[in-house]
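Open question from group meeting: does this chain pack into something compact, or does most of it stay loose? Before anyone orders reagents, we agreed to write out a predicted structure and look at it together. Recording both the input and the output here so the notebook holds the full record.
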Amino acid sequence: MSGAITIRRKVFKIFGGAFHIFNDKGEIIGYSKQKAFKFKEDIRIYTDESMAKELITIKARNVIDFSAAYDAIDTQTNTKICAFKRKGLKSIFKDEWIIMDPNDNDIGVISEDSAVLALIRRLFLNFIPQKFNAAVNGKKLCSYKQRFNPFIFKLDINLEDTNADQRMIQLCIVGGILLTAIEGRQN
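Structure tokens returned:
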């Protein structure tokens, strides 16, 4: 897998959310669908828009939770890949997520690039695209960068290690989907 992935939120989706996942050649490598009208977040990642083969399920643990935790399950093996927990109060000023292993041990963090820029973004209607960095076990895993476009939400994921194992790539994609679905909702 190359070091670049892009997630694009579907433009005219009335209920729920739909996200296309592209590789660096512009080829669709995944399609994600967020179910509408659910009390608990339920996001599915498929190989493509046909939704014939589900790859990953992302589910919120609780109905309404300011510091929500989301479990990512590999549906092919029915095993938990990881979990992400949003830092509720802290995310008012600077978005931050805790990355947890399958046993819910903290192993990393996704954090917005700068508290100053985060505050400016919140005050000036997000004219400055968000940037995040993900680190696992103290080592930078990937970065996320929102492209400025008032009509289409696009998030670029740049993998630090292009030879990363499948679990780490899945972790980066799940993190990107959550940033697009949850943080992207604020824009």
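Observations to bring back to the group:
The longest strand covers residues 139-147.
The mean pLDDT is 84.
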